[in-house]
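Annotated sample (chain length 184).
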Amino acid sequence: MTFPASAPHGHRVPEGVPPLHLSPRMVLVVAGGALLGTAARYGLAWYRPVTTGEWPWATFTVNAVGTAALGFLLEALARRGDDVGRRRLLRLGVGTGFLGSFTTYSSLAVETDLLVHAHRPGLAAVYGVSSVVVGLLLGLGGIAAAAGHHRWRLARLPVDPDSPDAGGSADENQTQRERREERG
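Output written by the structure step:
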């Protein structure tokens, strides 16, 4: 198998294999996720429409939920292994497709501008800043939650009976769990 010498960022793609953005299957995975994400965002905006001069709750909610979910998803997938197979399909379909179209920072910008034009510059500033700060915090929270879930899963794995630590004291078993976490 030969590799092109100019592969970006040190990634090696076998010759004859199209990049992901040119793979019809991967494009369909992203497009399918995007269709569903856009429909979900539209449904929430329909349920809770923006009122002139008021806090845009639908956009604030989708951006907050979306960043938390994206943080959780990407951290969980990264901890599970390489970006191949089902993990790649989940990242592209759910992360890039669904959550990428579900979140809407362009609407955040438009709605901030609408608040300014409705003579609510203070609310516009609070909305814009809080959307970014809440998004950042919830994205980090999603990452932390996925990392915590990963540690919890590792701790629940059975102890290897052939391990020198097997059958030891509670402290020895705790040490073995800590070693598994370091490797995981």
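Annotation: The chain has one domain: 17-183.
Annotation: The radius of gyration is 22 Å.
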